[in-house]
Amino acid sequence: MTTTYRIQIDPSAETFGLTHQQLHEGIREGFGLYAQYGNVAFEFVTSGGQVRVGTKELWAGGVTHYRGEQVGNHLWLHSGHIGAGRHSGKNGPRNLPLDYRAISSQSAARQIIAHEFGHYLGWRHSGSTSCIMHSDSSARDFCPSEQARIRARFGVPVTPTPTPEPDPVNQRPILAAIGEQALNMSETPNLLLTLSASDPENGALTFSVEYLGAGSDLERLAYQLDKEHKLNGEATQHENWGGAEEKWFTSVDVQWYFITPNGNFYHWQSEARPGMEFLSKSEFIAPLNSDYHATPIKLYDAAEAQPFGVYRIRDGNFLEIAPQVNFTGTITMMVTVTDTGGLSDSEIFHVIVTSDPDPDPDPVPDPVEWATDVRLVFRGQTFVRAEPISAASPHIAGNEGLRLIFGEGASNLDGRFTP
After folding, report:
1. What is the pLDDT of residues 236-264, one digit of tens each?
2. Domain housing 406
3. I need a labelling partner for 364 at 20 to 30 A (CA). Which of 26, 151, 172, 354 fits?
């Protein structure tokens, strides 16, 4: 079921040098990032919004990296200026040191809204600069652990890509569904798919393909978590320290992580002490499964997926996939179609590669047993019996090949017999 939030943008919001359309598009794109990875939607309303968005122009005398603020259900985008001044916010006047970080672009508004809505959902700051929830992040998209967190919160999105609002002039193309594919290397060495898409303006379309990795989604996520958090070993001496049957890991930068029996991966926080609040006080990062708790080395020493072979777009709209000899497993790929205006549509799909030999051919039927005392008369001669020349026929029928065996002292004859 899709979770829907009603978003109300303050009509008096300052644009800080942007057009109203640029500011509003940036805000919509910031919320839209969540819809790319989770089954969540956002409805923009003029009143009665669950979440309200506004802007502030702040003056301060110090330097910090504040660009946004979340207070209850209100998300603020800041324009900061160096200077003396006071900020009269919801909680009363207070000094707030800011550096000069004016919202000078649509992408900046998008990043700030995505970050502040994460706080609205209860997320803390991340320690990874590649994540939007880092306190000084310039990331344009969620890092893998944040993507997994959104899926865990809202479920898998109904469509593989979000549906942006149509451009007043140009509308995005629609990629025809590809779905899961199968390739049996024993039958053919490659897979050739015909790609198709529709464009409302009937313009020229370009297809492209990206290889996302071999192995399951969980295996790729484990590898990304290992590299992102720099895990370097298991701390067995702390096993079940928090009372949740958890297993612990250390990282290169001396951070502590643990995984629970159901496969949930956490970043330990200093306020998390053994007891009932141990998990709620720790930072949940991503859902794996119980295999990674049973065999922790699969997480802290996760193997990178090896190249599987070659792939290419051929003749404009044919995708050719050619795995290496003896490769078997699951390949994940993404096909994108783009129109001349730069709008696009994508689908992520799997190719399951096997190498199953052809089944054994049908066994040769047993020879037909014939009666040995069949007597017949042919052209005035009596024969002792008739046998088939070929054993494939279950009975003597018209024009069957026969061997007629004569009586005593006569010669045998092969030929056709018509009763």
Report:
1. 888 999 999 999 999 998 899 999 999 99
2. 376-417
3. 354
